[in-house]
Amino acid sequence: MKRKLVVKILVGAVLFGQSISIASPVIVNAKEVNSTYSINYMQKDNASIVNIDKNDLSKIDDLVNENIKNGTFPGGVVLVAKDGKIVYEKAFGDSQKYDMGKELEKPRKTSVETIYDLASVTKVMATTQAIMKLSYEGKLDVNDKVIKHIPEFGKNGKENVKIKDLLTHTSGLTPWKPTFYYASTPEEELKFICDLPLEYETGTDRKYSDFSFMTLGFIVEAVTGEKLDEYVENEIYKPLGMDDTMYVPLNKNASLKDRIAATSWGNPYEYKMVDDDNFGYVCEEEAEDFKGWRDYTLIGEVNDGNAWYANKGVAGHAGVFSTASDLSKLGQLILNGGTYNGVTLYDQATVDEFTSIQSKFGHGYGWEINRGGENSGYMGKYANDNVFGHTGFSGTQVIFDKENDLQIISLTNKQNNGVNESGSYPSTFKFSRELCNIVYESIMPEINITGVENGKVYSKSVKAEIAVGENDTLLEVLLDGKEYKNEEISEVGEHTLLIKAQGRYGKETVKEIKFVIEKNSATNPSDKDETDKNESENDNDKIESSQPVKTGDSAGNIGMLVVGAISSLGVIFKLLKK
Predict the structure, then answer these.
(1) What are the DSSP E strand ranges found in 345-421?
(2) Quick one: residue 465, left, alpha or beta (phi over 0 = left, psi -120 to 50 = alpha)?
(3) Burial status of residue 15 (CB atoms within 10 A of its CB: 0-12, 13-18, 19 or more)
(4) How far, in Å, CA of 223 to CA of 151, rounded?
(5) ∠287-300-213 over CA atoms, to 5°?
(6) Cβ-count burial 553-575 (b if 16+ within 10 Å, e if not)
(7) Are strands 85-99 and 339-340 parallel, antiparallel or unpaired?
């Protein structure tokens, strides 16, 4: 009877041990779970989990409404993203207020889903993206001569122009001409560009040129064998879930018209560019000789004449339509180093190359760098060489900050208000500067506290260790209203620790930690400290002696249980002999 009982106990113990081993959960290091993409999803957040003050961001409302009131634009959408989270996204005003100068009785209201004509933002969110991707894949190099991909380009002094010269607007190509007088198809447009002479020697000056990016668009087509719109939509936008980003949107989906912001009343600005030599451009052409001038309010048709009349709405310099939220996905991919939500377009080295100054005139490859200032530019007074972006003639701005993992996107339809008395549209640069200043000044200092936690009760003395971000300043630390000098806190009772710090952009923040130290009646503090120390040392000994056992390692657990079972068998057999 005794022998049978012992055997049953042994079998039960072994089976129980195996069941524990098999059922043990596999503990995976949290840092290893989806670590590449864990912050890449553009989720909306109320700014509670990122280092930004949502109350300060509310100042954006007043800024936008002020610009609507003073006629800078009829409406717009502003989006701010920090650390991979959308912390501000709001729509204002009207997506269409006027129809050919007549104010609508019921203007169309803007929503965050309103789609905008990006104008020259196309240069960086379409053409430059394609060049970055193709460069990363080794299908072209920025040092390639244009003639490698478009041989017919090599005449009239353009034989040695390189891709990088086009990207930095230093190619020598003229800024603008009305190509639609001579071209009505993309093929005719390319021939017109190839026949152009240089206006100045390559690399000796910087003149912002639409022709540089028209040429880049044709290079993308030559390298990929696809039309530019097909390539960027299929290879960049669709994989990223940018479903509202496209060229010629009404050709893709006519039902989008009600979501697209209206822009100009025909093409009055370009008409004046051709008609008035004192307007900034000297043109040989006569305005009335072109019979295709649009005489209706533009909705879903790119405003730019060369893109629309000559290129059928698809060009390297203009033509893309998008929403603020779509653009934030591509913006986050850039800030992430080329990957977003599991999709990789290029790597960090490519991002660094294209968003760094690449010419003596301060331009990156495609991107404008550090266009900030107190009273100039559009990136605000806190911009530095880590800030890059672009603007569009329709009233659009995209601004990205690598150092702060920050996006500031503002899309407006300023052209729907019409031109002013001089024939120009209001500038959105001042608005964008002030917007950037508000956002930067809402970034809070980083305050890190160890050794004490809010709401905790301690039975022994504690010591708070306080640190702030690299570019932040620690202003003051108070313990119960008195200066805290980083000493141990042992007095029994309630305590309040106040930490005041200032961020690099001037934002001051106070962090409060409340905690309690209670009297320990079992031991005096010195005895308890010694006891804790001994227990800690004993615990360390136990951990060191059991190093081969790893939580979640089922193979290790089974092996140890087998060893234990064999040892137990020896003891039990001795008992049976007795």
Answers:
(1) 368-369, 387-392, 396-401, 406-412
(2) beta
(3) exposed
(4) 13
(5) 65
(6) beeebbebbeeeeeeeeeebeee
(7) unpaired
Measured in degrees and rounded to the nearest 5, phi and psi for residue 253 equal: -160, 100
Which residues, other chains included, contact 486 with Cβ-Cβ below 8 Å and sequence gap of 6+?
463, 464, 465, 466
- The β-bridge relationship of strands 493-502 and 473-479 is antiparallel
CA-to-CA distance for 80 and 400, rounded, in angstroms? 10
Q: Which amino acid is at 324?
A: A
Helix residue ranges, H only, 417-524 = 429-441
pLDDT, one tens digit per residue, over 435-491 is 999 999 999 999 999 999 999 999 999 999 999 999 999 999 999 999 999 999 999
9: three-class secondary structure by DSSP? helix
Q: Name the token pair of 578.
A: 């007795």
Residue 492 in contact with residue 467, Cβ under 8 Å? no
SS (H, E, C) 35-47: CCCCCCCCEECCC
DSSP state of 196: P
Q: Is the pLDDT of residue 45 over 70?
A: no
> Around 98, how many Cα atoms within 13 Å sit in the side-chain half-sphere?
19
Quote the crossing angle between the two packed helices 210-224 and 186-195, to the nearest 10°: 120
- The DSSP bridge pattern shows strands 508-517 and 457-458 to be parallel
For every residue of 22-74, DSSP letters joined together read: HH------GGGTTTTTTT-S-EE--STTTTB-HHHHTHHHHHHHHHHHTTS-S
Could you count the other beta carbons within 10 Å of the beta carbon of residue 498?
16
Look at residues 499, 502, 501, 503 and name the one whose alpha carbon lies nearest to residue 512: 499
Q: Residue 327: what pLDDT? A: 98
Do 249 and 115 meet the contact criterion of CB atoms below 8 Å apart? yes
Q: What is the pTM of this model?
A: 0.83
Query: If DSSP codes are grouped into helix, strand and coil, which group holds residue 177?
Result: coil
3-state DSSP helix/strand/coil % of the chain, to nearest 5: 40, 20, 40
In the chain the first and final C-alpha atoms are separated, in Å, by: 13
Grade residue 48 by pLDDT with cuts at 50, 70 and 90. Answer: low
Residue with tokens 């002696």: 545
Angle of CA points 463, 468, 473, to nearest 5°: 120
Per-residue pLDDT tens over the stretch 315-344: 999 999 999 999 999 999 999 999 999 999
Q: Which positions ≥6 away from 399 have C-beta within 8 Å? A: 378, 379, 387, 388, 389, 407, 408, 409, 432, 436
Which H, E and C letters describe 158-175, residue by residue?
Answer: CCCCEHHHHHCCCCCCCC
Residue 539 has phi, psi (to 5 degrees) of -60, -40
**Distance from C-alpha of 201 to C-alpha of 170, rounded to nearest angstrom:** 9
Q: How far is it, in rounded angstroms, from Cα 444 to Cα 385?
A: 21
Helices (H), 112-185: 122, 128-136, 163-167
- Specify the 3-state DSSP secondary structure of 275: helix
Residue with tokens 């020697």: 201
Find the largest Cα–Cα distance for the chain: 119
